[in-house]
Amino acid sequence: MTSSEHEAEASDATDPVPGDQPVLLAHGYLHPGILFLRLAAALRSSVIPMVVGLFVVEGGVRWVVIGVAVFFLVMNMAYVLIRFITFRYWLTTDELVTTEGIFNRQERRIPVNRIQDLSFEQSIVRRLFGLVVVTVETAAGEGAEAKLDSLGLAPAAQLREALQYLRATGSSGRTVTAGGVAHPDPAAWSEEEVVLRVRAVDLTMRGLTDNRAGAILIFVFVLIEQAQELGVVTRAKDVVDAWVERFSQLDVAHTALVAAVALVVVVVLGWVVSIAASFLLFFGFTLTRRGEVFQRRYGLLTTRVRSLPQRKIQRVLIEQNLLRRMLRVAVVRADSAGSGANQQEEVKGGLDVVAPLTPLNTARLLVPHLLPGMDPTAVPWQRVSGKVVGRLFAEGFAGMVVVMAVGLPTIGVVALASIVLPVLMLLAGVLIYHNLGYAHADGHFAMRWGVLGRYRAFIPLRKVQAVALRASPWDRAFGLARLVVYVAGAAPTTLQHLTRSDAVRLQRELAHTAARARFVW
Amino acid sequence: MSGIDPLENSRSPDDDPAREPAPIDAASSPEVGHESAAEVDPVAGPAFSHEQLSASTPEPQERLDPKVVVYWLVSGLISWVFLGVLLGGVALFAWFKWSRFGMPVAIAVGAIAVLLLVWTLISPTLAYNRWRFSVGADLLLARYGILFIEEKAIPISRMQHIDLYRGVVERMLGLTTLIVFTAGTEGAHFRLPGLSLLRARELRDLILAARGDDVI
After folding, report:
1. What is the nearest CA distance from A473 to chain B, expressed in angstroms?
2. Could you give the CA distance from residue A508 to residue B140 in angstroms, rounded to a whole number?
3. Are A517 and A443 contacting, i.e. CB atoms less than 8 angstroms apart?
4. Which of A11, B84, B113, B158 is 20 to 30 A (C-alpha) from A496?
């Protein structure tokens, strides 16, 4: 598709065919329901000044405060109203255009082939009003290019269909237009097929295997601390003191029992919270594909529809923490260039998740969908240098020497315990050697790591931006080096503990292959 | 796999600072690249061997303009002067105002300032001795770093745009920094310092010619 796109572009530029005008595919305005939401938001933000004005300050100041609050409320609403009245958008076969404003007329034009992603988000309130926020993202990477907040359901669907149609027919689908109306070309317009549907069982499992017990513990501590800070519960302190006293009278077995019960409560609480979070975010997760574009629909209260063009994928990760590895289930994520949102937003909204949780075998089957030509079951894994064992042992030994040198004169014989350090590091070295792996196969760079959990990353070489080789003095003492692979949409991937010669060879292979593979956004 | 390194002895591009700088054949390399690109399909084809690949892009062996040492020295000294004034102030203050710990603190701070000065004086030469780069048919290769050695390979077809940058000191010395930008946010640009203006322009044109119009 991409090459035909370029040809189409090129031919457009050189010899425009007469009568081959851009065709209007969709157009519209914001949905009136947004006015209610904006009004509610404006009222909410003016509540505090109002309350202050009415109940806190007295005399002339009161009216000034209230006046200012009312003034800002009115201005806010006027702005919202003007924006609502003047906002228009339309999509042609060439570009998406939005305009707004009366005096400062603002017009934004986004060429269709620059549009990376059209995502849809409905919070619970917007669902009540039948509204949806449409975000247009381009490869620029710095946030959304345009935000249509909010459209009605039907216009949003129309916009999506039109854009998908354009994608399916190449960037300008003018060949199949007749009488100013676009007709989908049946050959290019493939049906939407479901790739993955995540069941409730999977989401429950995701919650159960999510390591949140620790988070709950912190939460409980914070709660107690807050309660003390506020002094709300001096009685609670008495109660706690009484409990502590009672515990101190118990024997060891009983104390252990109570501790165990407390632990179980924390873990169960952690599970409940995790399962709830898992359902809230990913309820009804469905991954579908239509041609080269994937689409994810998910969410319980806030529902999201996000597309993910296959050619945009920069890296695919199959992630298993310890529990998930034992249960043979995995999370699949895909990083994409210019997904707009920042890292935090991405994690919070599950923007990069392709499968919230799925059996490992399914996860493996998913990879060739996302990265054509990459078969994760037949990767010729290679190990890193065996020198990693010696290196970690040396590090442990050095650590022991330092601890002994400092410890023996100060804390005495206890410092001898540091003799376990080299042993532990040796063990770690062996484990790392057995688990760390890499491969260069099928036009992809693959890497797996993790001693307890298991993580695999697959990077299509056509997306690689640079390959670096790094060696610290300590690395060089062991003849080792690390390889860093840069892609546009994600943090660099680092492979440590390679023999220098292997690292050089791998770097050159990856870089040359990347250089010869065509890069498309 | 573990202990055996077939290439360990055959070729070690890193530890050979004495190698003679040899300018690459700028005119012929792009064609070589296009021919080999047509032969091998990067997705379906077999992985390239190290030797095959080295043919199209030479190992980094071109050195920077020696005047870059002066540039680094001057800019290093300028920033050292600022820091030195600050540290000297701290040392003097400690020496005269703090009764008990004044002298040791002043000596320590002074020692730091002197060490920084020594580093400022020797690091340009060390960096210059390490720096090697090459521009081939499809890659820009560069090796640099004093303690932490880094070797970067940037596919020319990934370069979004190229800047030539000349600061005040660089202009006085007739030097230019070539900056190449790739997509992405982290590690998305690379600076190749210490080029003569002529060589920088040559390299830019060479890269643009090798890149073609492949990039959107």
Report:
1. 6
2. 11
3. yes
4. B158
- Which one is predicted more confidently, B119 or B32? B119
Contact B6/A at CB under 8 A: yes
- For B165, the 3-state DSSP assignment is strand
Tokens of B191: 């600076």
User: Which of A465, A497, A518, A519 best tests the B interface by mutation, with the highest count of B CBs <10 A?
Assistant: A465
**What distance in Å separates residue B95's CA from the closest CA in chain A?**
31
Angle at which helices A234-249 and A252-282 cross, to 10°: 130
Query: Would you kindly state where each structural domain of chain A is located, as residue ranges?
Result: 2-191, 208-281, 290-384+436-516, 387-432
The 3-state DSSP class for residue A437 equals: strand
Q: Report CA-CA distances (Å) from B59 to A47, A88, A504, B49, B152.
A: 68, 56, 11, 15, 12
- What is the distance in angstroms between the Cα of B120 and the nearest Cα belonging to chain A? 20
Check B151 against A468: CB less than 8 A apart. yes
* CA A188 to each of CA A116, A164, A167, A291, A308: distance values in angstroms, whole numbers, following the listed order: 19, 10, 9, 8, 18
Spatial contact of A122 and A303, defined as CB atoms under 8 Å apart = yes
Q: Under DSSP, is residue A435 helix (H, G, I), strand (E, B) or coil?
A: helix
Distance between CA A209 and CA A357 in Å, rounded? 10
Look at residue A98 and give its three-state secondary structure. strand
Does the beta carbon of B153 lie under 8 angstroms from any beta carbon of chain A? yes
Res B51: pLDDT: 54
Strand A454-460 vs strand A464-471: parallel, antiparallel, or unpaired?
unpaired
DSSP annotation of A32 reads T
Q: Whole-angstrom Cα distance, residue A312 to residue A517?
A: 15
What ipTM does this complex have? Answer: 0.73
Give me the residue from A433, A466, A508 closest to B50, CB to CB: A508
Asked if B154 and A465 count as a contact pair (C-beta separation under 8 A), the reply is: yes
* Nearest-by-Cβ selection for B47 from A470, A479, A509: A509
User: Do the chains contact at A516 and B37, CB–CB below 8 Å?
Assistant: yes
Q: What is the mean pLDDT of residues A329-356?
A: 74
Chain centroid, CA A203 distance in Å: 17
Q: pLDDT per residue over B179-193, tens digit each?
A: 998 876 666 789 999
Length of chain A: 521
Q: What is the mean pLDDT of chain A?
A: 81
CB contact under 8 A, A467 and B190: no
Dihedral sign of CA atoms B209, B212, B215, B216 in order: positive
